[in-house]
Amino acid sequence: MAIAVYPGSFDPFTFGHLDIAIRAAKMFDTVHVVVVHNPNKKPRFSAAARVAMISEVLENQPGNFVINSFDTGLLVDYCKTVNADALVKGIRSTVDLDYELPMAQVNRDLSGIETVFIPGDPRTGFVSSSLVKQVADLGGDISKYVPEPVARKLLGK
Ligand code: PNS
Prior knowledge:
By secondary structure, the protein is of the alpha/beta class. The chain has a single domain (3-126), classed as HUPs (Rossmann fold), CATH 3.40.50.620. The chain is built from 6 helices and 5 strands. The chain has a 5-stranded parallel β-sheet with strand order 3-2-1-4-5, with helices on both faces. α2 (47-58) packs antiparallel against α6. It is globular, with a radius of gyration of 15 Å. The model has no long low-confidence stretch (mean pLDDT 97). The chain binds 4'-phosphopantetheine. 4'-phosphopantetheine binds next to β1 and α4.
């Protein structure tokens, strides 16, 4: 049974994240989608709210998902706890690669775990959580960028 961990801030979960989660679930028997506290970011949604949104979004999607969160400790320790075989990250551009590569290298150095990079779909490649929040705040249409349960929350409905 191959197990993957797909971590991120997911503040909020976009169609780009959804695409990566579904594609990861085609390669792994179980995919843990994990909301991780990033001290460099001030989240709009609580970890519990993000877990709830992701759970609703993934409920009817093909694949075996576990949705979880953690806010202290190393990601590799979470990976050990759940016996993960690999980490999964989506890569939209070389900017993502520059950001993700050192993290993949340090995670492997710390624990031996490999990171599988999945190239982002160009159709969602420009979508980021921060841009989606900005568009929502300024009254733009976000329905193309985030799944419906997320759009509802972003619009305070
Ligand atoms: O979506 P993000 O904010 O780019 O995700 C980054 C995240 C949360 C996955 C990364 O910061 C992380 O792995 N944090 C956990 C703490 C950790 O293990 N740090 C050392 C190795 S990167």
